């Protein structure tokens, strides 16, 4: 396991960031499915506290299941969907805005990408990544 530290938002709490050490893949997968675009909008995975390499993603809408996945290890990459996802508006996650339909992915690819990073700390090469 590569990931030992996770943060996510909880917009119903006074301190809107939650931190988790020593978290399991099963717990992360539940958190991914619990991203609802309202209370929980993003999740970030790190090898450990204080590390710079990270994998993060956010969600626009649970009904559409549209995710943004970002991998950063000094270079920055987005998981892309070459066919695009039907999404007509800009997505704002925190201070970041996304507006290209190819920057949005479905839950299946999100889970594959997150699990590979959780286990090995690398991008899943069977998926489409674009360097920013």
Topology:
Elements: E1 5-9, E2 17-21, H1 25-34, E3 42-46, E4 54-59, E5 67-72, E6 76-79, E7 91-93, E8 96-98, H2 107-120, E9 129-131
Antiparallel strand pairs: 1-2, 1-3, 3-4, 4-5, 5-6, 6-9, 7-8
Helix pairs in contact: 1-2
Written account of the structure:
There is one protein chain. By secondary structure, the protein is α+β, with helices and mostly antiparallel strands. It has two helices and nine strands, in the order E-E-H-E-E-E-E-E-E-H-E. Helix 1 (25-34) packs antiparallel against helix 2 (107-120). It starts with a strand and ends with a strand.
In short:
With 132 residues, the chain is of the alpha+beta class. The chain is built from two helices and nine strands; from the N terminus they run E-E-H-E-E-E-E-E-E-H-E.
Write down how many β-strands occur, each being a DSSP E stretch of 2 or more residues: 9
* Backbone CA Rg: 14 Å
Amount of beta strand: 25-35%
Q: Identify low-pLDDT runs.
A: none
How far apart, in Å, are the first and last alpha carbons? 27 Å
Give the strand line-up of the largest sheet: 2-1-3-4-5-6-9
| Biggest sheet architecture | 7 strands, antiparallel
SSE topology string = EEHEEEEEEHE
Q: What's the overall geometry?
A: globular
Strand-pairing-aware structural class:
alpha+beta
